[in-house]
């Protein structure tokens, strides 16, 4: 069988005429085990390096925490998952019916050139936790009573209560004249 080329026949649809045509294909010859192993090792190193770079990146708005917003009769509630974010690194503001939540989640154990080589990991096996700054806005369609706003952080969940202004939700009948 050495030196023999095997052709495979298949039918394909011609894109221009729409007719079926017979085509000859030749499958790729399998890579040798050495070449395949070298390629696999290079790709593994590349992916590890990519994960390391991602871990070191600290771009603005690099992540957005999960948020729930719900409305009740008297207030709007916002719940934000912020495990690992300290209150010192968190800011919540309300301006013109836009709630802005911004903050920073810092890495517990710094990784990078500042850490001595003996303390750095050999490689990362899995990097799924996100770090860095975040900022997002929630537009509110209800007038809010700014004096009654409350926020608390419990077990990594930020809960914000935004009471609706008394003028919200009242139905006023308007008389019509001829």
Features:
three-stranded antiparallel β-sheet, flat, 178 residues, alpha+beta, Immunoglobulin-like, four-stranded antiparallel β-sheet, single chain
Protein topology:
Elements lengths: L7 E6 L6 E6 L7 H24 L10 E5 L3 E7 L8 E6 L2 E8 L26 E8 L10 E5 L2 E7 L15
Antiparallel strand pairs: 1-2, 3-4, 4-9, 5-6, 6-7, 8-9
Task: Describe the 3D structure.
The protein has 178 residues and is of the alpha+beta class. The chain has a domain at 67-107 and 116-163: Sandwich (Immunoglobulin-like). 13% of the residues lie in helices and 33% in strands. It contains one helix and nine strands; from the N terminus they run E-E-H-E-E-E-E-E-E-E. The chain has one helix spanning 33-56, and strands at 8-13, 20-25, 67-71, 75-81, 90-95, 98-105, 132-139, 150-154, 157-163. It has a four-stranded antiparallel beta sheet, with no helix packed on it. The chain has a three-stranded antiparallel beta sheet with strand order 5-6-7, with no helix packed on it. A hairpin with a 2-residue loop joins strand 8 (150-154) and strand 9. The longest helix has 24 residues, at 33-56. The radius of gyration is 30 Å and the shape is flat. The mean pLDDT is 76.
Q: What's the count of strands? A: 9
Mean pLDDT: 76
Q: How far apart lie the N and C ends?
A: 100 Å
CATH architecture of the domain at 67-107 and 116-163: Sandwich
């Amino acid at each position: 069988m050495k030196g023999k080329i095997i052709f495979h026949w298949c039918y394909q649809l011609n894109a221009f005429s729409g007719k079926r045509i017979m085509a000859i294909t030749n499958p790729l010859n399998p890579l040798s085990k050495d070449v395949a192993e070298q390629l696999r090792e290079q790709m593994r190193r590349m992916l590890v390096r990519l994960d390391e770079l991602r871990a070191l990146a600290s771009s603005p708005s690099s992540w957005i925490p999960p948020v729930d917003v719900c409305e009740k009769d008297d207030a709007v509630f916002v719940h934000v998952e912020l495990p690992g974010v300290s209150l010192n690194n968190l800011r919540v503001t309300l301006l013109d019916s836009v709630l802005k939540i911004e903050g920073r989640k810092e890495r517990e154990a710094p990784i990078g050139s500042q850490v001595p080589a003996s303390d750095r990991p050999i490689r990362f096996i899995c990097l799924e936790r996100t770090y860095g700054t975040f900022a997002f806005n929630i537009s509110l369609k209800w007038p809010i009573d700014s004096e009654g706003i409350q926020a608390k952080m419990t077990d990594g969940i930020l809960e914000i209560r935004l009471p609706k202004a008394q003028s919200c939700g009242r139905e006023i009948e308007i008389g019509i004249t001829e």
